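User: Could you walk me through two proteins back to back? I'd like the raw sequence and the structure tokens for each, with a short line separating them so I can tell where one ends and the next begins.

Assistant: Of course. Protein one, sequence then structure:
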Amino acid sequence: MYLTGVQVERGTVATPFEVRNFSQELQLCQRYFQKSYNIASVPGTNVSGTGAIVVAAVTTTETPGSRFTVPMRANPVMVMYNPYSTTTTGVIGVLSTGADTAAASALTTGEMGFRLVSSTGLTTGLGYQYHYAANAEL
């Protein structure tokens, strides 16, 4: 059984039916959850670097900041994934150059974006890749 075209209302009065296109609905959802993976890809999937974010280390411990597609409703919980994992799922908490890896976590996380820091050290100017999932659900 499929249910479509349903609008749930709070209270006893029905309002006019709203139809939102995919882009509108996606932006509304992204206030609660965003990811760098393609829409159909589950976070943590090994995608061999496809669509990964690439940043050059600005110091031996930090990368430049990244902005979210739309502002989050609150500071999100961040998970970083290595896009070049040798397993079937991306390794959590790792940046990759394709050959070398470095441990990473979100240093500064806000409603508008985040900045990464590495506890194992980065090579200044070298490009690091990663995927992320940001969760600010209720």
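----
Protein two, same layout:
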Amino acid sequence: MTADQYLRTVLAKYSTANGAAQHAAAIANELAPYIREWAGQYLVSLEYSGSYAKKTALAGEADLDLLISLSSVTPNTLQEIYNNLQTYLAAKGFITRRQNVSIGLSYKGYQVDLVPAKRQSQQGNDHSLYVNKKGTWTKTNVHQHITLVGNSSRIAEIQIMKIWRNNRSLDFPSFYLELVVLHALSGQPAGQLANNVWKVLTYIANDFVNARFVDPANANNVISDLLSQQARQQIANYAKTSLTATNWSQIVA
């Protein structure tokens, strides 16, 4: 078995074709009535904003990210919107978690992140989000993120690197990881899975720690600031160890 063949068998093991995607859709549909009731006339849409939207989802990753897009004429401040969503969900019996830009809750085995966002205008997909940890706000464009990753021809490499991360229980936010993979493989040919994954691991081992990554939809939103220098160094150290492996099963399984 070649290295590429082995990695393809690993991807097949984590494929969402076994019903995970349908289960996620069912969870979203069950939560939708609550969101519609909470948002009322100001709801524009409720949509996937994470791995399911970007086609990088893995079976066994019980995470579901949903963007609650609110009209630009929603009267509340971003902080009020964030707080009101948590208050509403708690009143409905959900156990909630205040996260950076989302309200988290556990529902039927899924960790669901609900991201309330206000459109910046009546047209377009630029949104403003409340940043709970800093008590401020930021701009982003989830549709741009989805297009960037989903059309990148790097889905397999991203999924393998997510599996690598999960195998080691690393704190490495998915969008940060996706940006790293895209950067590391800039100019590299598509379809050479093992060579490309090796290229990503080499980049992480040697150049990742001090590299600066920003939100492509907002240059003021520094994604690499999500992790401390120490956390980035830990990821780099794991990559260095992986590069010493004698077979691919020691890298991802």
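DSSP finds nine helices and nine strands in the chain.

Let me know if you want the two compared in more detail.
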